[in-house]
Amino acid sequence: MTKPPFDPAVYTDLMASALDLPLTDVMRPAVIANVALAFKLAPLFVDFALPDSIEPAPVFHAGAADD
Amino acid sequence: MTDWTFQPGHAITRAINRGEINARTVTEQHLAAITAHDPRLNAYTDVTADRALHQADRIDALRRAGQPLPPLAGVPYAVKNLVDVAGLTTRAGSKINRDNPPASADATVVTRLDSAGAVLLGSLNMGEYAYDFTGLNAHDGPSRNPHDTARMTGGSSGGSGAAAAGGLAALTIGSDTNGSIRVPASLCGLFGLKPTFGAVSRAGTFPFVASLDHIGPLARSVEDLARAFDAVAGPDAADPVCRANAPQPTTAQLEGSITDLRVARAGDYFTRMATPEALCAVDIVARALGATSVVSFPESHRARAAAFVITMTESANLHRVRIRGRPMDFDPEVRDRLIAGAMLPADWLVQAQRFRSWYQRACLMLFSDVDVILAPATPCSAPLLDQKTFVLDGVELPVRPNLGLFTQPISFIGLPVVTVPTWQNGAMPIGVQIITAPGREAIALRVARVLEKEGIATVRRPAI
């Protein structure tokens, strides 16, 4: 079975409802366009294979007992 | 009487030290210039005249008492309005934050500039919540480019660009998350310094993307950038990402030779999307520096995409309450990006931050073979204020998110950059990024100073 193409409008409507985000008729086209842009860009780094040893850039410091 | 409004800050300090002028006169001239020209440039949102005159009088009193003057004595400066100034509400370019009480204390950057003797003239216009590369603002109106008021300043530190280029301050402070110092420096024909991530405290500034936010100066001279950096850089426990060690002072190294430096141009991504004028700007600088080799920041298109998604998701989190509670009080273009950012998978954010680690390692290896890398600051010179799209590499793209195409992959890994202004055919200016390894601001500034001395990178007085 062929996977249906991603529909940013469907995704946007579902996420707005699930996350209680505002989405009026005025906002909707631009929000959908921004979601579509993110989905176009994300595969560039999501699909880039990284070694398991690569950790996220921000590093948490626990501090010292006398901090 | 000498007009001090277009003199560099270091010349003002020197003249005050010699008794050729007093700080009050310099301050009054700048306040008069703001009154005369700001209605057209729209750089300022708040003018702190009383505070400025009080600070100027303090400098003049020190000199009368025969006391040594601090390094930025009498330098008139102003800050992007996301920087806390005691007594002013920090609006961060927004309508919503105007409901907040005035700041109870100055940001660290203001405290340090004050200690160095600089005179605060006020706060500057900016794109809403710094989510902007244009200098447009839905609430305060656009800051306007002093070299052509029908054109953009670039953003989001648009007022910082307009004020420094228009002679309404010798020095301005901006913030740079993805390019917001370097883009207005490029479009307004200024020198701009985006320091190493963590070199300058962000304490007391309204955040945008905590992973990527930087604070830095814009000015009409390289020496002013160096003096400002030396004054504000250094550890600050109030900013969790501030580096623990103070950087080497840069001003004392400014006139040093650059003949021992290995300079290369950035290829691939940094040439593909540039217009001929952006490539010509890099040619001019590369020729002057004898840079013939080309290096490649690997996978920069992926870095830009990762920075883009981190920006969308972190900023959406920062504004999650405001998005839900007051959506109609946002600039619609900002709001609609924030709402979209709130919908993106957590997996993407973590992967983007992992890719950032990989990209940093790969890019830092370049600096074993070169000291300085040149790249365009913006893909083109200043677009018109109402321009929505431009054509890059044969593709029509929206201006707003794409003016920072060349700055975004560099700030993504916190490298220090000085943007230098170039001019072609007497038209609008366009900047070139001088990129160095982390903590090497002094090298980037030395290179910029050579370009300034040789007349390759120059600031022009606009006809306002």
Determine the N-to-C terminus distance of chain A: 59 Å
**Rg of chain B, Å, rounded:** 20 Å
The low-confidence runs of chain B, each spanning 5 or more residues with pLDDT under 50, are none
Give the overall silhouette of chain B: globular
Main sheet of chain B? 11 strands, mixed
What structural category arises from helix and sheet content of chain A?
A: mainly alpha
Mean of residue pLDDT values of chain B: 97
Subunit arrangement of the protein: heterodimer
Q: Which percent range fits the helix content of chain A?
A: 40-55%
**Cα end-to-end separation of chain B:** 19 Å
Task: Kindly summarize this structure in a few lines.
The complex is a heterodimer of chains A (67) and B (464). With 67 residues, chain A is mostly helical. Chain A has helices at residues 8-18, 28-41, 43-46.
Report on this model:
The complex is a heterodimer of chains A (67) and B (464). Chain A contains three helices and no strands. Chain A has 67 residues and is mainly alpha-helical. In chain A, helix 1 crosses helix 2. The longest helix of chain A is centred in the middle third of the chain and has 14 residues, at 28-41. Chain A is flat, with a radius of gyration of 19 Å. Chain B is of the alpha/beta class and 464 residues long. In chain B, 37% of the residues lie in helices and 15% in strands. Chain B has helices at 9-18, 23-41, 49-64, 108-115, 158-165, 182-188, 222-232, 269-272, 276-289, 300-318, 320-325, 332-341, 346-364, 399-402, 408-411, 441-453; strands at residues 44-47, 76-80, 119-124, 144-145, 148-152, 171-176, 191-194, 214-219, 263-266, 293-295, 372-376, 389-392, 395-398, 417-422, 430-435. In chain B, helix 5 runs parallel beside helix 6 (182-188) and helix 10 crosses helix 12 (332-341). Chain B is globular, with a radius of gyration of 20 Å. Chain B starts with 8 loop residues before the first helix and ends in an 11-residue tail after the last helix. The chains are: A mainly alpha (67), B alpha/beta (464).
